[in-house]
Design a protein that fits this description.
With about 300 residues, this protein is of the alpha+beta class. It has eleven helices and 14 strands. The strands form five sheets. A six-stranded mixed beta sheet has the order 11-6-1-2-3-12, sandwiched between helices. A two-stranded antiparallel sheet has the order 4-5. Helix 4 packs across helix 5 and helix 5 packs antiparallel against helix 6. It is elongated.
Length: about 300
């Protein structure tokens, strides 16, 4: 019996057997069509992304990937600093370090000298007592044949306080340190080997301990580690406050004008994307005199 009059009409068979056979054929054809349709939609959907998110997205909305690139200031040049660590009461020099901030190669260079270093038969400690930091700056500058732009003169306590303001650092101690000095201006230090968290008080003791044991290269390494970690984005955010603390906690010839003119340099050095190299030059002594070849090596590092 025909239900419709057009091509493709469905027939209802007269017998049950014929009905079952045709019904199975129809279901098989239907299943094939559904399976083919599902596979087709899946393939097209993977290729063209027919997700609900894309379907309902406004036509005016475009997906744009932003690759943010920081435009840091262009900086160049070299600045030499002289850092003096002293006993506040006796003016004895524990350490006198040359530090260069090289903006041409983006690097820090450090050379640490002991207070007993003799220049023209005068120890740095004695030179300091006669004319303070300015006298040492002139003597060291002339001796090594280099230009020193700025000096920072701090007592042990001032250095420890300033260190804490800048923040503790991570430092790897190569071997366990145990030292006890019971003299009036002595100090005690006990610190294990391996990774250590260093605060200002410990930093000052580490420097004094290494200088007493003439480990000048280790002092250089410690200074480079501190510079690399403490000149950072967090301190840059409060740079005016940190500079004010530096003025309060040291004797220095760095002025507010110098600070303001160096903003671009600080921006680059403090940025988290800037990779600053570090170098240390170890002085070679004969007694309290730096030998001639070592003087030449140091000059090579700090000449502008």
């Amino acid at each position: 019996m025909r239900l419709f009059k057009n091509r493709g009409d469905i027939y209802i068979p007269a017998t049950k057997l014929k009905s079952d056979l045709e019904q199975k054929i129809l279901f098989a054809v239907l299943a094939f069509i559904l399976a083919f349709t599902a596979v087709f939609v899946l393939i097209v959907g993977i290729k063209y992304d027919f997700s609900a998110k894309n379907f309902f997205k406004p036509k005016t909305m475009n997906s744009v990937e932003y690759n943010e690139t920081k435009n840091l200031p262009a900086v160049k040049g070299k600045n030499n600093f002289l850092f003096i660590l002293k006993n506040e009461d006796t003016s004895e020099i524990y350490m006198c370090s040359l530090i260069q901030v090289d903006l041409d190669t983006l690097s820090y260079k450090v050379c640490s000298l002991k207070g007993e270093t003799e220049i023209e038969n005068n120890k740095l400690t004695d030179i300091y007592k006669k004319g303070n930091a300015g006298n040492i700056l002139n003597a060291v500058s002339t001796f090594f044949g280099i230009e020193i732009d700025y000096f920072i003169d701090q007592s042990v306590k001032q250095y420890a306080d300033m260190f804490d303001y800048f923040g503790e650092i991570n430092y790897v101690v190569n071997e366990e340190i145990k030292y006890k000095d019971n003299s009036y201006y002595g100090f005690n230090i006990k610190i294990g080997s391996g990774d250590q968290r260093i605060d200002g008080n410990t930093a000052a003791k580490i420097i004094r301990y290494y200088m007493i044991n003439e480990k000048y290269d280790t002092v250089n390494e410690f200074f480079c580690t501190a510079l690399s970690q403490q000149i950072n984005p967090e301190n840059y955010k409060i740079k005016e406050k940190q500079f004010s603390r530096l003025i309060d906690h040291s004797i220095t010839n760095i002025t507010i004008r110098d600070f303001n003119e160096g903003t671009d340099e600080l921006t680059v050095l403090c940025d988290e994307t800037t990779g600053v190299n570090v170098y240390g030059i170890k002085p070679v002594y004969e007694g309290n005199f730096v030998i001639a070849s070592s003087v030449d090596d140091i000059r090579g590092y700090f000449v502008k």
